[in-house]
Write a structure and sequence with these properties.
Two copies of one chain form a homodimer. Chain A is an all-alpha fold and about 210 residues long. Chain A is about 70% helix and about 0% strand. Chain A binds a DNA duplex (18 and 18 nucleotides) through helix 3.
DNA sequence: GTCTATATCTAGATAGAC
DNA sequence: GTCTATCTAGATATAGAC
């Protein structure tokens, strides 16, 4: 019954990536969709097209599978968002806000990111290590970048660059939370562009020529 | 065996509030601690000191119990935070930010609120009605108040009061999320006061005397 | 490593006596 | 409404053949 055994070379419905990779992909999908407690090893096995025992030969138990999956995902998402360390520091303030907004819009349109956020927040008390990885790699890194900008650009007269970076980041991310994560985009109609322009105006106000 | 029957009048370990109230309190505690899927009717029954069947005589099933509990909790939390509609509109900008900050600090120090937030976010895809109630009653109401302030205070030259209100609220709430909900207060050391003062500075910059 | 088969437990939910 | 008792399904996890 199992035609695709061991080392067949060619094209198959779920191609030759090894069972482990199949399990990982299925686990990502299932955990993101149903949460930790809502995901059963049966569901994962079924979605992966393997038998349950196979999962246990690759991962010690459900917890370890979950941690491995989410940790990897969190780090992967960051890699996408923070690569190309373009010469951001040399931008004009308006351009800088535009770039920030652009990076944010990527997150805003990524349902997988929203699901990851739901999961990290929902499980943050039971899996604090994962929440910490997220804060470290996503939040602190993103804020560090913006913070550096406000620190360097003395003409903007920002007394507390870190707090200012937090205000920018917080404005955008909270918009994502209300509209996409919590699904309130129909009852809370505030466009990203309006936040962007208001931030620009605030920065102009600080400027002393 | 059940000494505290029907209409006894006096002091008992879990006093005379009726089984329903016992169930509600136990359910709140258990759901907040273990999440929806992580909570079993057995756990709730045990925590409430009743037998499982008793729960089913008050609530149709687990979903209905969950919805009833969370809906009530969400609304109750708002009641606390938005009562006393003090004459906020007549405050000076700095005072206004101080009041906002004060209200926010209450949330910042309320572990039950953080747990509720975790639950609402974590279950927002499976219980969108609850997420919507939260956005409507907490977020939109809070922002509406701030938005009105910026609308009225023309001297602040805020072109988009709604966006500005969102920036203020988003700065504060995202701080709560990183530090309390996700537990990152040790790796992300930004005090509320610094955000508060930076917001004040930004408003001063907009002002045209 | 991968499967078959199974052990063990706990889940949500209900029937029926009182 | 509340309890005892129980049904049935599905959970995590493993033993043992290949």
């Amino acid at each position: 019954m199992n035609v695709q055994d061991a080392n067949s070379t060619a094209e198959l419905s779920t191609p030759r990536r090894g069972k482990r990779e199949q399990i990982v992909q299925a686990a990502v999908k299932t955990f993101l969709e149903h949460g930790y407690a809502g995901t059963s090893m049966n569901k994962v096995a079924e979605a992966a097209g393997v038998i349950k025992a196979t999962i246990y030969s690759h991962f010690k138990d459900k917890q370890q599978l979950f941690i491995a999956i989410i940790e990897e995902m969190t780090i992967k998402k960051v890699a996408i968002d923070f690569t190309n360390p373009e010469p951001i520091l040399s931008l004009e303030p308006d351009e800088f806000i535009d770039v920030l907004t652009g990076k944010f819009c990527v997150l805003m349109q990524d349902p997988e990111y929203h699901a990851l956020f739901r999961l990290l927040v929902g499980e943050s008390e039971r899996f604090p290590e994962l929440a910490e990885i997220y804060v470290r790699t996503v939040i602190l890194r993103g804020m560090g970048l913006a913070s550096k900008y406000f620190e360097v650009h003395k003409e903007l007269n920002i007394e507390d660059p870190q707090a200012m970076a937090h205000i920018c980041a917080g404005s955008f991310i909270s918009l994502m939370v209300w509209q996409q994560v919590l699904g309130g985009k129909n009852i809370m109609t505030l466009e990203v562009g309006r936040v962007r322009e208001t931030l620009k105006a605030l920065l102009r106000g600080q400027r002393q020529p």
